[in-house]
Amino acid sequence: MRRFMARGAVIVVALALLGATAAPASATSSTFMRWKFAFDLRNHPDHNPFPSAFGRPSAWSLRQSQSLQRDGNYPLLRLYSSKFGSGGLKAWHGNNSGSCVRLPAIGVNTTVNPLPLCSGLVPGSAAFVVPSATHMPVVAWTSPYDGAITISHDAVSDIDRTCGDGVDYYVDSGTAQLAAVAVANGGGTTLPSMDVPVKKGQSLYFIVDAGPNHNSSCDATQLQITIDGVVTQTP
Predict the structure, then answer these.
(1) Is residue 117, in this structure, part of any structural domain at all?
(2) Torsions phi, psi of 98, nearest 5?
(3) Total domain count for the chain?
(4) CATH number of the domain enclosing 208
């Protein structure tokens, strides 16, 4: 009996050692991540920077250019209004005088109903920007990881057709231009999907300026931005 138990113990130890040897040294896991600009901003309208609606790292920030140059030097917008032109519109903005509000501005309609902004109309639940004649609103997305992302939906529309000459829209990676489009007064467009390699801490910039004549009247602009990425982690 004692001899049998001793042999059993040896077998158990051997199997344990074999299992330890056979186990992988490491395992990787992948997590799908999505950032939707308007949806995320509605959930964090009074934060700048702010995370996705699901509480992931604060990738979004709301900024302004210091001139009409797209030079990558974009300080944060520091002023916040919980009633920006209409109750239900919340926005971060600068100090420049506009037709009825301070500019440049980046904000969101926190209601499901269209709301007036100066002479324009912001659709329900929509994010918007308004440039000034000398400063551009800049929506920044800063990567929390190394890898690649897909800008899977990128749409822009002029939501104030009352006057003006439309806007120009740019998507930049740092100071490198990825896309550019001129939007006619009252017009809109959806850009093709783009795959973009990124490094942790690298920023993409979504920029609107006041159009060819730098006339900022009637330049309220809706932005829709969706960014998808897969983060692979090794413990």
Answers:
(1) yes
(2) -120, -165
(3) 1
(4) 2.60.120
Show pLDDT as tens, one digit a residue, over the chain (235 residues): 444 334 444 333 333 333 433 444 445 667 889 999 999 999 999 999 999 988 878 999 999 999 999 999 999 999 999 999 999 999 999 998 877 899 999 999 999 999 999 999 999 999 999 999 999 999 999 999 999 999 999 999 999 999 989 999 999 999 999 999 999 999 999 999 999 999 999 999 999 999 888 888 899 999 999 999 987 654 5
Sequence-distant (6+) residues with CB within 8 A of 54 are none
DSSP-derived secondary structure letter, 174: T
In the three-class reduction of DSSP (H, G, I as helix; E, B as strand; rest coil), residue 10 is classed as helix
- Which residues, including other chains, have CB under 8 Å from residue 7's CB and lie 6 or more apart? none
In a domain, 192, yes or no: yes
Amino acid identity, position 193 = S
Q: Evaluate whether residue 111 is within a structural domain.
A: yes
Give the structural domain span for 116: 28-233
> Which H or E run includes 162?
none
- Name the token pair of 16: 């344990």
pTM score, two decimals? 0.86
Residue 3 domain-assigned (yes or no): no
